[in-house]
Amino acid sequence: MGTRELLERTAETAIGWLESLDGRPVGASAGVEDLRARLGGPVPAGPLDPLAVVDELARAVEPGLVAIPSGRYFGFVIGGGLPAAVAADWLTSAWDQCPGLYACGPAAAVVEEVAGAWLRDLLGLPERASFAFVPGCQTAHLTCLAAARHHVLRARGWDVEERGLAGAPLIRVVLGAKRHVSVDRALRFLGIGRASLVVVPDDGAGAVRVDRLREAVEKDSAPTIVCAQAGEINTGGFDDLDDIADVAERTGAWLHVDGAFGLWAAASPALRHLVRGAGRADSWALDTHKWLNVPYDSGLALCAHPDAHRAAMSVTADYLVQGGPGDPREPMDWTPAFSRRARGFAVYAALRSLGRDGVAELVERSCAHARRFADGVTEIPGCRVLNDVVLNQVLFRFGDDRTTDLVLRTVVESGEAWISGTTFDGRRAIRLSVCNWQTSENDIARTLRAFREAVGGVRRRDGQKNAGPRRRRVS
Predict the structure, then answer these.
(1) How far apart are the C-alpha atoms of 453 and 210, rounded to whole Å?
(2) b/e code 329-361 from CB counts within 10 Å (16+ = b)
(3) CA nearest 210: which of 242, 179, 244?
(4) pTM for the full model?
(5) What is the mean pLDDT of residues 117-134?
(6) Torsional class of 430: left (φ above 0), alpha (ψ -120 to 50), beta (otherwise)
(7) How many Å is the Cα radius of gyration of the chain?
(8) Strands of 224-229's sheet, edge to edge?
(9) Which end of the chain is more exposed for a tag (fewer CB within 10 A), N or C?
(10) What is the rounded distance in angstroms from the CA atom of residue 277 to the CA atom of residue 458?
C-alpha cells in the first residue's frame, strides 16, 4: 500500500476517534499490564507493512486512551484541539519542518514570528517583548528565568554566561506558598536551589499576601527575582499583579508571571481586570495547549527585555547558517532547543480560526460553564465549594477525605467525566477545570448527574454497611 492510502486510512482512524468522544468513556479502560501485553514483546525481527503497523497500533492503544479532547474532560487544566489547529498540526507532521534555524524552515520561522506577535497583542503585553515557542509552561519558565538570572546578575557586574554561577552574587527568589511546582523545577535547572527561595504565605484563596511579599523583597538588597501567579492551579485565584509590580519597580527586582492558563483572562474584556498590571512584568510564561486549544505540546515564553532573553538563549557555531536577506528572525536565538517541532503552524491556525472575539468568547464561555457547575454541585447534599469561582476552576469536597475520594473515583470509573483530585489546606478535594472548546451545557449537566448518582451510591453503601446484619425474627 502506498503513502496516500496509508495516510487516508490513518485520517479515517483519527476521525473515528474524534467522532466517538461523546459516547465513549472519558477515562481509559485498560490498565498498565494489559497495555504492556498489547504493546510489548521483543524487537520485531523484520519489516512490516506500514498500514499493518498503524492499524495494530491503533487497536492496541485504544483502550488506554483518555478522551482528553472530550467536552467532559476536566482534569489538569488540559484543553482540547480546535479543528483548525488539529488539521494544521497534521500538516506540521507532514511538512516536517525544523524551526531551529530560519534556513531550515523559512515558513515555520515566519509563522512563529507572526503568531507570537498576535499573542503578545491579544494578551496586552508590551510590543517590545520578545517571545519563544516552547513545549509548555515548564520550559517557558526555564527560558524566562534564565533571562532573569542574566539580567539581575548583569546589574551586579557578573556575566553568568561567561563565568557561570560559581562565585556569583547569590540570587534570591521571592514567591508564593501556592506557586506551581514547575517554577521550582525551572529554578533548580538554573542552579538556584531551595535555600535561595523566600516563600511568602497566601491569603487562604491561593493569592500571595502582597504585604508579606513587600517585606520580603525590601528586607535584602541581593539580586532578586519575584515570581507571581495569574491563576492558582486549585482555586484559579490571582495574585495582585499591579501591587506586586509596584514592589518590583521600586526595588529593581525582576518580576516573572506564571500565567499558564490564567493569563488568557487578558483576552476577555469581561475578565481582563483579573490580570491588571500584568503588562508591567519583566517576563511571562503560558501554555497555548490549554485555553487556545492547540494540540500538545505548545507553550510560550515572553520577555520584556529582549537583550537579556537573547543573551541567555542564543548560540553560534561555524556550521550554523544564520541570518540572510531581509534580516529574518532566528528562532534559535530565543529558545533552549535546536531541533524542535514547528508549533507555530497550529497556533497560527487557532488564532486565525477564532480571531480576537473568538478567543474572548471561548474563555468567557468556559468560565460560565465553571460557574454553572459550581452552582449545581452545591445543591448536592454534603458538597462544599471551597473557592470563589473567579475563572475556570471549581474546588470542592464531600464531607471527609474518604468520602471525597470515593465520590471522585466513582465518577471517574463511570466514564461520564474525568476530573482530578487534589489536596488543599491539608485535606482532600476535587478540582474541576473547564478550558475545552467542546464543553457544552449538556456536558456540565451530565457531569453533575454523575456526581449526584455517585453521592447517592456512596450513601447507600455506607448505610448498608452501618446497618449491620439483620436479626432473624424469632416467633
Answers:
(1) 43
(2) ebbbbbbbbeebbbbbbbbbbbbeebeeebbbe
(3) 244
(4) 0.95
(5) 98
(6) beta
(7) 25
(8) 130-134, 299-303, 283-287, 254-258, 224-229, 172-176, 197-200
(9) C
(10) 46
Answer for the pair 234, 422: CB distance below 8 angstroms, yes or no: yes
Instruction: Indicate the domain borders of the chain.
Output: 86-350
344-377 vs 441-467: helix crossing angle, rounded to 10: 50
Of 320, 333, 351, 280, nearest in space to 133 by CA: 333
Which residues are bridge partners to 284 per DSSP? 257, 302
State the cell numbers at 303. 520577555
For 455-470, give one letter per residue: b (16+ CB within 10 A) or e.
beebeeeeeeeeeeee
Task: Enter the CATH code of domain 86-350.
Answer: 3.40.640.10
Between the CA of residue 405 and those of 233, 363, 395, 444, what are the distances in Å?
Answer: 19, 29, 13, 20
Is the pLDDT at 470 greater than 60, yes or no?
no
Alpha-carbon distance of 223 to 29, in angstroms, equals 51
Q: Who contacts 125 (Cβ-Cβ below 8 Å, separation ≥6)?
A: 278, 279, 284, 302, 304
CA distances from 277 to 192, 249, 281, 300, 349 (A): 27, 12, 8, 19, 29
- Provide the CB-side half-sphere exposure for 10 (13 A, CA): 15
Q: How many residues does the chain have?
A: 475
Instruction: State the burial class of residue 414 (Cβ atoms within 10 Å of its Cβ: 0-12, 13-18, 19+).
Output: middle
What phi, psi does 110 have (nearest 5°)? -70, -35
What mean pLDDT comes out for the span 378-407?
A: 97
